[in-house]
Amino acid sequence: xxxxxxxxxxxxxxxxxxxxxxxxxxxxxxxxxxxxxxxxxxxxxxxxxxxxxxxxxxxxxxxxxxxxxxxxxxxxxxxxxxxxxxxxxxxxxxxxxxxxxxxxxxxxxxxxxxxxxxxxxxxxxxxxxxxxxxxxxxxxxxxxxxxxxxxxxxxxxxxxxxxxxxxxxxxxxxxxxxxxxxxxxxxxxxxxxxxxxxxxxxxxxxxxxxxxxxxxxxxxxxxxxxxxxxxxxxxxxxxxxxxxxxxxxxxxxxxxxxxxxxxxxxxxxxxxxxxxxxxxxxxxxxxxxxxxxxxxxxxxxxxxxxxxxxx
Length: 311
Ligand code: HEM
Ligand SMILES: *[C@@H]1O[C@H](CO)[C@@H](O)[C@H](O)[C@H]1NC(C)=O
Ligand SMILES: *[C@@H]1O[C@H](CO)[C@@H](O)[C@H](O)[C@H]1NC(C)=O
Ligand SMILES: *[C@@H]1O[C@H](CO)[C@@H](O)[C@H](O)[C@H]1NC(C)=O
Ligand SMILES: *[C@@H]1O[C@H](CO)[C@@H](O)[C@H](O)[C@H]1NC(C)=O
Ligand SMILES: *[C@@H]1O[C@H](CO)[C@@H](O)[C@H](O)[C@H]1NC(C)=O
Description:
This protein is mainly α. It has helices at 2-18, 33-36, 40-54, 58-71, 102-115, 157-165, 171-178, 210-219, 243-249, 256-263, 265-276, 278-293, and strands spanning 185-187, 230-232.
């Protein structure tokens, strides 16, 4: 528990300290709320920190939520909207993460509405440590079907590069942001195709370390009675570090899409340099998170009163 709050502080500190906020002509700014709601950052930070002490999975879930939100219709909190009788929302789309920690954001938002009514958008209340540019507006549209535009854990490097490029993100951003997998867990369904009947020539994906493949097969046999079975995405899944890259270098990436980063000359050298230099990874992750946070920022949105419903 202590470790987790230290992790949050560390992540918060490095992002806030290391990011040089590249202010464009857009209205986003790191101190947007300084005048409008000076308590905002603190309220968000306290809420996330407290929630993480009760449930150590919270940081991983919020981080993944942020990624999914930004990749579909930009960072407009469209992911937070509930489905209605007329519309199935992103929340309930195929790689569905609806059981995740939405309550933490709702909780922060409730406290923010009390302190500063109609000021802090839902898109901005997702977390202080990565979401450093503030002032974005909330979208009004959320469509489950659009989640199929997310990259898949079976994607090859070319597809991943294209998917990121469509959002204005570079190859370096792809490799740095994939480091988000230093936190977190995956169910067998996202990688078991690598283990059994992979191709006509290979029973298992030849890029997997063979010892690791044996371990994964034990956790994910076919058939598998345990629907919650899976594997952590690196060996230190509650610590934000560069272990994810070290494991990829050893052939121990869990997803095909993780391991693919080491199989392609365009990304391999970046994986290598993050595996060797953790500080470099932290700096590049922070910079890429700022870029991710600027994807598709909308101007004609609203400031939702409740994150799960349009006004
Ligand atoms: C590059 C393309 C990416 C693909 C294909 C991908 C795919 C996935 C998949 C399949 C899972 C596991 C879902 C499950 O079975 O439970 C997952 C988990 C996760 N992803 Fe990604 N992801 C990508 C990029 C990212 C990025 C950019 C971030 C954040 C910066 C991120 C953060 C996470 C986190 C934190 C988890 C763990 C969630 C948890 O433990 O609850 N991913 N990802
Ligand atoms: C901390 O989180 C727990 C669990 O989510 C909640 O019950 C409690 O009210 C929170 N405390 C504060 C001070 O926010
Ligand atoms: C996923 O979404 C479906 C509807 O598309 C829903 O029935 C199911 O309960 C959701 N599963 C989880 C784990 O949230
Ligand atoms: C999603 O939208 C596409 C394009 O409009 C359509 O072809 C497809 O059938 C839709 N899928 C679902 C599951 O609604
Ligand atoms: C990558 O995947 C795409 C989509 O599945 C496929 O069309 C393409 O041929 C693959 N590229 C390589 C180099 O394997
Ligand atoms: C692998 O493929 C063979 C032949 O198609 C099939 O008989 C077998 O059940 C498959 N095994 C698994 C684990 O899917």
